[in-house]
Amino acid sequence: MRKEKITLKIKRQDSPQLKPRWETFSLKYRPGMNIITCLMDIRKNPRTLDGMKTTPVKWEQNCLEEVCGSCTMIINGRVRQACAALVDKLEDPITVEPMKKFPLVCDLVVDRSSMFETLKHAKAWVPIDGTYDVGPGPRIEPEKQQEMYQLTRCMTCGCCLEACPQVNAHSPFIGPAVISQVRLFNANPTGRSNARERLESLMITGGAQDCGNAQNCVEVCPLHIPLTTSIAEINKQITLKLLGMLKE
Amino acid sequence: MSEIPVSKKVIVIGGGLAGLMATIKLAEAGFHVDLFSLVPVKRSHSACAQGGMNASVNTKGEGDSPQIHFQETIHGGDYLANQPMALEMCKRASGYVYLLDRMGVPFNRTPEGLIDFRRFGGTKFHRTAFAGATTGQQLLYALDEQTRRHEVEGRVRKFEGWEFLSAILDDKKIIRGITAMNLTRMEVAAFRAGAVILATGGCGMIFGQSTNSTACTGSAAGAVFQQGAWYANGEFIQVHPTAVPGEDKNRLISESIRGEGGRVWTYKDGKPWYFLEEWYPNYGNLVPRDIATRAIFKVCRELKLGVDGKDVVYLDVSHLARHVLEEKLLGVIEIYEKFAGQDPRKVPMKVFPSVHYTMGGMYVNDKQMSNVSGLLAAGECDYQYHGANRLGANSLLSCFYGGELAAQTAVEYIKGKEKEEPVSGGERVCELEVKRQNEINEHLLAARGKENPFSLWEEMGRWMTENVTVVRYNDKLKKTEEKLLEIQERYQDINLSDMTTWVNQPLVFARDLWNMIVLARVITRGALLRDESRGSHYKPEFPNRDDEKFLKTTVARYTPEGPEISYEAVDTSLIQPKPRVY
C-alpha cells in the first residue's frame, strides 16, 4: 500500500545541561525520501504531530552521499548516515536519536573531536620529508593498492565506536577506527618508519588488546572496512614487537 | 600560540584541498596558520570528487604532454581562461600526483606497480590519475593527515565548526583579519593575521539542488564581495551531464564512468539510441560536459525522447568487465545502488544533468591575490584556470596549484608589508567589525516576520535552476532578476523559528542566504549581459561565440543597488582562439 504520511520520533535535547525529550512529527510521504529530506521538511515548518510550534531540529550534514561522515545518527536503533537511510526501507514510525558514545551538543549533533585526537596520538600520517617535488613514491603492486584502498576510505564517522560494546563510559577503549588507521600507515612503505611509535600508542590501557571481539564494528561500517582483520593484524604486530621480532 | 605575532600568521578559510594545500605550504614556510572550517576539515566537499586528477605523464606512450593538456584545457574552456596561468598549472600537474603518491594516496596501479591513468572528457589521452572512484576523498584525507601532523607540531591551529563572517579591513582597505562565528556557541570573534586566504569552494547551493555539499553556499565569497572584493565570470556555472536527481541533493555519477567505457543512450523507434556517439563520433561519450549536457537537454526537452517521456536518459555500464567496475568505479556504483536502489552492474542508471561546478569566482590576479590588499583566494572559489567550461579532472589540479600559489603569494605579501609599515595595529577596526556582525545577528534573532529562510532558499533555487543554467533566454533572465529583488525584499520579513543562542542553525543559514541572493544576482546579471554562447553559457537567441565583444572576463563590483558589471581582456598570448568543434 502506498504511504501517505510518515511518522518521525526524534530525540531532542536543547543543550548538554538540559533534559532530553521526544518529539513526534508527521510528514507528507514522497518517493525517494531519506532522513535528511525529512529533517529538511521539519525545518521549513517546525510543528510537532499535535500542531505545537517547536524549533527546527539540529543535525550535522554536508556531502549527503555517504562520503563525508557528517550526518551519522541512530535510526530505528541502528547507527548509520542519515543521507543513505531511505524512508522506503525503514519501518514506520521511524525513531531518530543522536549517537550515544560521544558528548551531546544539541539534538542530533554530537562532538566527535575525540576521534580526531586519537589520530594525532597514533601519528596517522606518512612522514614525508616535505611537499617539494622529488618525483614519484615507491612502486606498489595492484593487489597491495586494493588492500590499502579499503582502509583509506574510513570517514571517521564513528559508527564502529557507537556499535562497539567495549566503547562505553566505564572503559577507555579507543575503538576500531584508529587501530585500522595504524594498520594502514604501518603497511605504507614510508609510513613503516613510525610503526613502533604507532603500535606504542595502542599499547595502553584501552588500546588494541581491549577489543572484545564482538564484531559489531564490521557489521555497521558503512564502507565495509575490514576492521576486525585490522585489529587482529595490529595485535599480531604488537606481539611481534614485544618479542622483539617486528620487521622494520 | 596566542603570542605568535600577526606578521607570522595567515588565516585560511576552508579545509578542502585548496585550503589544506595552502595551509601545509605556509606551515612549511615557517608561518602559523589559523585554519577555519564549517565542518571538521576531513568532511569538506573535496571528498565528493570522484573521477580523478589530470597530469600528462605519458606513461602509456600516447604522446601526451603538459602542452597538449594546456591546449585542451583552454579549448575546453572556450578560450575564456587566462592562458599563462593554465599552462603553469598543467606543467606542475605530475609533481602534485607524485607528491600525493608519497603521502600515501592509494592511486590505482598498473600491473608493473606504476600509477595508472584513465580517460576523461575533452581529451583522447589517458591522463587522469585516480583512486577507485573516490579520488577526491582520498586526496583530501592525505592532506588532512599532513595538516594534522603540522597541527601536532604547533604550526596549525584549527577552528572547525566556525563560520567565516567578514574580512576586517582598515581605513586603507587593507585586510587585518576576519570575524567568524562559532556554530555551537554562536559567539562572534575577531581573528587577526597578516593575510587571509579564502578557499571556500563553489556556490552550487544557490541553485537549490546540485551535486555540491550543503556547505557550498558561496557565502564567504558573497560576504567579501559586499566588502569590495570583485567577483569574476559569475555566469559560468557547470552543469554536469550525469547525476541522479534527488530532493535533498543531486548525486553525481562521475565522468569516469564514461572514461572507462560507460555509454549514454535513450530509446528511439524502440531501439537504443547512443546519441552522443552518433552526434560526436570523435569523442563520443567523452565530449566536454557542457556539450554532453546540452545534448541530453535536446533529447529530453526538444525531441521529447527522455526515458518514459521524462527528464531522464540512461547511463550504462552493465556491459563492462566486473573487475573494472569493482576496482575502478566502485564508489560511484555504490552511490547509485544506495540512493537509486538498483544495481548498475545489471541495469542502466537513470541520470539527468545537474549544477556541479562554479567556474567563476573571486577575482584574483596571476598570483591568486584579490583586488583587496592581503585577501587571496584559491580553489573553486576563485575564477581562474577553467574559463567558460572546466574539463573533468582539472578541478582537483587547480586546487593544488591555486593553493600552493596563494600560500607563496601570502608569504611574499606579508614580507613586503613588514618593510613598508608594521602589520600590527587595528584593534579598533576589529572591535567595530565584531560589533557590526553582532548587530546583524541580533537583528535576525529579533525578526518576527513570516518568511522561513529555508523555504525562501528553495524558491530561489527553483528560479535559478529553471532560468540560469543550461539554456538561457534574456526575458527569463530579466524575470529572474526581478524575482531575486523580490526575494531580497521578502528577506526583510524573515522568521528564524529559533531564538536560541546555542547551535542556532537557522541563524547561520539566514546569514548564508543573504550572501547567496547577492551572488545569485551577480550570476544572473552576468548571464543577461553576455549576449553570446560560450562554454557552459548558452543562449539560443545568440547561438554563436562572439570573440569581438565577449572574449572578456566579466568583472562584478558590489553596489547596494545591484552588481555593476565591466569587462576585462583575457590573456590569450599563447594560443589563438579557434572555433570549438569536437
Chain pair forming the biggest interface = A-B, 71 and 72 residues
Widest sheet: strand ordering of chain A: 2-1-5-3-4
Gap from first CA to last CA of chain B: 55 Å
Bin the helical content of chain A: 25-40%
Provide the succession of SSEs of chain A.
Answer: EEHEEEEEHHHEEHHHH
pLDDT < 50 stretches of chain B: none
Strand content of chain B: 15-25%
Alpha-carbon distance between the termini of chain A?
62 Å
Helical fraction of chain B:
25-40%
Q: Could you name the CATH topology of the largest domain in chain A?
A: Fumarate Reductase Iron-sulfur Protein, Chain B, domain 2
How would a textbook summarize the main sheet of chain A?
5 strands, mixed
* C-alpha geometry of chain A: elongated
Write a structural description:
The complex is a heterodimer of chains A (248) and B (582). Chain A contains eight helices and nine strands. With 248 residues, chain A is an alpha+beta fold. Chain A has two domains: 5-110, Roll (Ubiquitin-like (UB roll)); 113-242, Alpha-helical ferredoxin (Fumarate Reductase Iron-sulfur Protein, Chain B, domain 2), CATH 1.10.1060. In chain A, the strands form three sheets. Chain A has a five-stranded mixed beta sheet with strand order 2-1-5-3-4. In chain A, strands 6-7 form a two-stranded antiparallel ribbon. In chain A, strands 8-9 form a two-stranded antiparallel sheet. Chain A starts with a strand and ends in a 6-residue tail after the last helix. Chain B has 582 residues and is an alpha+beta fold. Chain B folds into three domains: 6-50 and 132-238 and 357-424, FAD/NAD(P)-binding domain, CATH 3.50.50; 240-355, Alpha-Beta Complex (Flavocytochrome C3, Chain A, domain 1), CATH 3.90.700.10; 429-546, Up-down Bundle (Methane Monooxygenase Hydroxylase, Chain G, domain 1). Chain B is 37% helix and 17% strand. Chain B has helices at 17-28, 66-76, 83-102, 135-152, 219-226, 256-259, 275-279, 289-302, 322-328, 330-340, 395-420, 427-446, 453-467, 474-491, 505-529, 547-550, and strands at 9-13, 32-37, 53-54, 117-118, 128-129, 156-160, 162-169, 175-182, 188-192, 195-198, 231-232, 237-244, 251-252, 263-268, 271-273, 313-316, 349-358, 361-362, 375-377, 552-557, 564-569. In chain B, strands 13-12-17-16-14-15 form a six-stranded antiparallel beta sheet. The termini of chain B are far apart. The model of chain B has no long low-confidence stretch (mean pLDDT 96).
